[in-house]
Amino acid sequence: MTGLAITAHELTKDYGNGRGCRSITITVGEGEAFGFLGPNGAGKSTFVKMLVGLIRQTEGHGTICGHPIGSLEARRHFGYLPELYRYQEWLSGEEVLQLHARLCDVEASEAKRRIPELLDLVGLGLRGKDRVKMYSKGMQQRLGLACALVNDPPIVFLDEPASALDPLGRRDVRELLRLMKAQGKTIFLNSHLLEDVELLCDRVALLNNGQILQVGSVADVLHETSRWHLRVGGFAPFLLAWLQEASGLTVRLLEMAAEEDSVWLEAELEDDEQIGWLNALVIEQGMTLYEVKKAKTKLDEWFVSSVAGRSHRGERE
Ligand SMILES: Nc1ncnc2c1ncn2[C@@H]1O[C@H](COP(=O)(O)OP(=O)(O)OP(=O)(O)O)[C@@H](O)[C@H]1O
């Protein structure tokens, strides 16, 4: 079994205004990609700041590679891209990386070799000599990613690593994260880009109002009863009641379809084999069956349905 890269036990930050994080307990294994999700103001950045030792917890404890959070030893084991990054604008990208390398005790010869590689890796290879003041927001974010990797750490904490990037930049970051994962790095990712999280992460946690609502593997949290979508013509409301009665399944009207005066129905089956039987029932009632497809649950649907109806902090207050 691989070891634990990150542990948090009842980690709490109380800002004194009832906000922050409450009693968060999680573990992240070595080499795991862990997605930390939640609505604006849920407490994601606060939690990461405690783990990387930027703010002190009010209660609880945690470790990074077995070392207490906040300790120098813990700090040697990770790189961090903050949500609000800002680099010395009078320095060039290369100089910012040299500074970070020195702060991380990277040997000068190693830094000399690594920095051009890192600039290439994040797509700044041709702009390393330009001053940060000349960089766009997206370029600064790319520089931040390079800074997080400057000492080749086993763990990276990335707080919204693609928030300033255009779709091409986002694709680059997705690729970079995949590469980091393939290299065996542990990735702790705060992100609102749920499609990327779904592709990359092994497990996710969902935070709301400073507390964990759910933790699980991506496969587990997306596991649902088998849902199918059927596009049918000749639909009338009484047929829905009949279908439900005859099949004993939950069938609902989803929406009007764009084509052929038809509607989309959604059925929750007990297992996928029932679909042939349901199709036969639809046809038996004189409806026309145009299309049948399995509904794919996405992480964003899970996110929305998990926090729906709960109060949020932040933008919705
Ligand atoms: N220094 C602080 N003092 C007081 N309250 C704070 C402080 N920093 C954050 N908060 C509050 O704590 C809560 C959590 O903030 P945090 O930045 O951790 O959320 P988040 O989940 O990262 O949000 P987002 O997705 O918008 O980045 C918010 O209600 C915020 O207003």
Automatic annotation (TrEMBL):
<dbReference type="GO" id="GO:0005524">
    <property type="term" value="F:ATP binding"/>
</dbReference>
<dbReference type="InterPro" id="IPR017871">
    <property type="entry name" value="ABC_transporter-like_CS"/>
</dbReference>
<dbReference type="InterPro" id="IPR003439">
    <property type="entry name" value="ABC_transporter-like_ATP-bd"/>
</dbReference>
<comment type="similarity">
    <text>Belongs to the ABC transporter superfamily.</text>
</comment>
<dbReference type="Pfam" id="PF00005">
    <property type="entry name" value="ABC_tran"/>
</dbReference>
<keyword id="KW-0547">Nucleotide-binding</keyword>
<protein>
    <submittedName>
        <fullName>ABC transporter</fullName>
    </submittedName>
</protein>
<dbReference type="GO" id="GO:0016887">
    <property type="term" value="F:ATP hydrolysis activity"/>
</dbReference>
<keyword id="KW-0813">Transport</keyword>
<feature type="domain" description="ABC transporter">
    <location>
        <begin position="6"/>
        <end position="234"/>
    </location>
</feature>
<keyword id="KW-0067">ATP-binding</keyword>
<dbReference type="InterPro" id="IPR027417">
    <property type="entry name" value="P-loop_NTPase"/>
</dbReference>
<dbReference type="InterPro" id="IPR003593">
    <property type="entry name" value="AAA+_ATPase"/>
</dbReference>
